[in-house]
Amino acid sequence: MFGIDPFKRTAAVLVATAAAAATALLGAPTAVAAPQPIVGGTTTTTTAYPFMMQITDASQNQFCGGTLVSATKVVTAAHCMVGETTSSVRVVGGRTYLNGTNGTVSRVSKIWINPDYTDATNGDDVAVLTLSTSMPYTTASYVTSSQTGVYAAGTTARIIGWGTTSENGSSSNQLRTATVPIVSDSSCRSSYGSDFVATDMVCAGYTSGGVDTCQGDSGGPLLIGGVLAGITSWGEGCAEAGYPGVYTRLTTFSGLVATQVNS
Ligand code: ARG
């Protein structure tokens, strides 16, 4: 159908090198250049979104996002943690700018990767990090397993991250955010065929494209009504017409996540 997507090449690079930040940009040669930031958003701050965490390497180079759900627990994507160890990763809170030095830096004492995870296009793309240092920031709540109604098509969702502001572009030094409508499962299946696993994924974006998460936004939140309901996972390019962003359907995994968060 659409063959090996850019994400898979990105994922391979993430596996090959723990220093994903620069190399994650190598993965996206496709169709038309997409218009704007996260793609199509506006600048924001970690004051506005205090639960928004940078996932970085040991040198504090950001390569993914994460969401603080308790003082010492961060929800992110499994694909962000492939090849990482508790010594290779840091979590940075309260830092709006990638080149900042402020905020709180924590080491990670445990990385839980969903044991069923193989590849983002197979689903199960969720991980929970346990921090060595408590984060003094307001946490986000996350959906419960029964809240499956939050993904009704057309519902407005918020995406947040430092990722590239166009398909082959560079990361944003300042945190960005945008809103995108939830796309129906049948429509997303039309876009992505069997790579879209409706039990594990939910899509969001405009039919005409233009607004989306992109490389480096992975692991960050998709909020619905201010509640963590998805995790940035994958997509064909970024912000392309007919190819919405794909997010982990968190209701499917909230029981697993809660076990980690409460452990
Ligand atoms: N896999 C990317 C990452 O690691 C996120 C891609 C999101 N793509 C999209 N079109 N929404 O940062």
UniProtKB/TrEMBL annotation:
GO terms for biological process: proteolysis. Keywords: Disulfide bond, Hydrolase, Protease, Serine protease, Signal. InterPro entries: Peptidase_S1, Peptidase_S1_PA, Peptidase_S1_PA_chymotrypsin, Peptidase_S1A, Trypsin_dom, TRYPSIN_HIS, TRYPSIN_SER. Pfam families: Trypsin (PF00089). GO terms for molecular function: peptidase activity. Residues 1-33 form the signal peptide. Transmembrane segments: none annotated. The keyword Lyase does not apply. The keyword Transcription does not apply. It comes from the Bacteria. Residues 38-262 form the Peptidase S1 domain. Belongs to the peptidase S1 family. PANTHER family: FI18310P1-RELATED, POLYSERASE-RELATED. This is Serine protease.
